[in-house]
Write a structure and sequence with these properties.
The complex is a heterotrimer of chains A (125), B (139) and C (520). Chain B is 70% helix and 9% strand. Chain B is mostly helical. The radius of gyration of chain B is 17 Å and the shape is elongated. The chains are: A mainly alpha (125), B mainly alpha (139), C mainly alpha (520).
Chain lengths: 125, 139, 520
Amino acid sequence: MEAVLSFFVAIFFAVAIYLMLSKHIIRILLGVAIFGNAVNLTIFTVGRIVREVPPIIPEALQTPDTITANPLPQALILTAIVISFSFFAFLLVLAFRAYQELGTDDTEGMRVAEPEGEPLPPLGY
Amino acid sequence: MRTLIFRTIAPYLTSLMVLFSIFVLLRGHNDPGGGFIGGLIAASAFAIYGIACGVSPVRRALYFHPMAISGFGLLLAALAGWLSIFFQVPFMTGLWTKISVLGLPVDISTVMFFDIGVYLVVVGSITSIALALEEREHG
Amino acid sequence: MAAETVDLSHAMVTAPVPAGDWLVIAPVAIPIVVGAILLMVRHETRLHASLAIGGLLVTLATNVGLLSRVLADGPQVMTMGRWLPPFGITFAADALGASLALVATLVATVCAIYAQKDIEATGRRYGFYPFMFLMMAGVGGSFLTGDIFNLYVWFEVFVISSFGLLILGSTHRQLDGATKYAILNLVGTTLFLIATAYLYGIFGTLNMADIARKADAMRDTGPMMTLAVLYLLAFGMKAAAFPVNFWLPASYHTPRIVTAALFGGILTKVGVYSLLRVLVMLFPVERAELSGVIAWVAAATMVLGIVGALAQSDLRRVLGFVVISGVGVMLAGLALGTQEGLTGTILYAFHSVLAMTALYLLAGVMNELGGTYSLHDLSGLYRKSPLIAALALLIVLAVAGLPPASGLWPKVLLVRASIDAGLPWLSFAILLTGLLTTIALGKVYILTIWRQKEPAEEGAAAASVPMPGVGYASLIMLAVPVLLLGLYPEPFIRIAETAADGLINSSAYIGAVFPAGGQP
């Protein structure tokens, strides 16, 4: 199972990186979304995959009596999903605003903050 | 999107979704559910209302600004953690008590208030993002 | 609840926690509460400044309390929700984290004071102060947490808040800069998350003290080197180290000057802190293997950063490159990894937080007096205000690393440490950076303060500029510690030495988190 999942992780990363290498913000954003999912799948895979036995200790015992699912990777993924979701929502609004105001989503055209051909600073006085 | 059917149904749909979101929030302690997913359901309810009837009716219906709701949620969650200082236990320790409502015992805990705080943070922030996007589309 | 029948002492902290232990969490929890209140009263803009300054002063007081406790009794620990470490999320304050949290809060307080003038009612309604508080909560959490996934969460908290601060005002330049800042920082933090995922897969724990004590047994089994390299890349990106630093000059000059002061002072230092914490404390052997790479990265960052500063004609863009160059100097100590080198790095971090913020605020005051940030037009400030000339001289000397200001001693330590470690070229790079910084900032000083334009142009501009009283007050508040660090450095060097020692010999840190030495 791990081998199959790691294969998927590799595909996700490849797709994400390919999209992020694009010049267009919207493609970069799609890449970022897939990137986040690739990482979540990574966490899930490295957390060891076992049968879905809930990790609940029976009464009168100190430790669980069978091998249970590891709840920690799921908690980590949940946190990571929440964070990447809010990040993505913010980035979407930001990219939309930037597209409206700057009139382009091509990163090579976004030269407002660092204009091309700025004059050198004064060399003497 | 402002068709007659949608506009007629939207208020009922919204109130039903908000009700369901509170149900999901409260069952979250022992079953699937909780503040985050409940908050998302409520936020999508307000987004639907916004699509159907416009943004300003939503803002009027919420009464408070979405970010203020978010702030209140954050405050509630933080104070649920701070309550531990009076019981000599570390930050964010779950404290439980039982109260009786109409003769039925009900468990009340700081964990629940923390979850309600999360719910309000999510409702506030996601609604404010959704409304900001909708406003721009129409205006 | 059935839990009462089970013996909880196996899994939970049962001893009562005295209120004094709350000092560990207070520098994070207080900003969250104050930030939430500020978010609720967002439209009462008159309340904001006083509430914010008051909240930061309380946070500052808890930070002072925490640092003095740490220096007296060693690392302080609190584990959330009574679960025993490594299961509960631990907050562990050692000398490094507590002292950096203190300096960062001090700087934030000064920025809050300066912001009274810089951020008008629209900016406040948009949420300058709430975002600032959430950012400070994230920064404090990053400095104090003892759990590596929790460190990731605090990173995201301050990164998301910094987006809000960065686009405050929504000019075209800001949208452009913020887009690049946001996407590249997201990639950086995601790399951090990938590294953490692998770390969890290898160690099965996320508690830093637990990782530190297990690392020796794992040395030859797991892909530890991969982890160390991934962390170096992820935190290097956040710290703006050379090949991955281009988000910083693209964005730091776009927001309000007080926001830039906060960012330039604090945010890159969180990246440096995380590098120190993870590479020195958790992966010391791998860090030693990588030290050649880190040394080249450090030298390239400091020299290329300052060369970039020489070529800019906008004052704020000069400062962005100066921030990068300072990061390079701090990485030099990380490359050496010796007690003396790390002491130099940590002392440089204190200096850099204070001096970079002061430098940005200085630019803000200059803009108030001269009405522009362009080095072509800004001139004749000495005539307008000799005080600004004096303050600017002190701050420029500090950043250039010249006496009597704060930049001298950390550079002395770093130069000596790199000669001792047999890397004379690294000490040459540090000295060259100092020379180039002196040239770059000296040029700025001459152009803005001493240069006199034609009297005709001068008269119109100089007619009636009100004296920026708040700006002077904030600058003086930063100039005092800068001068103190330069003239009487012993106590600060001692704190930095304690912090460096705590990183190299992590037994005190581990012992504080696991007092019984209990097995997991």
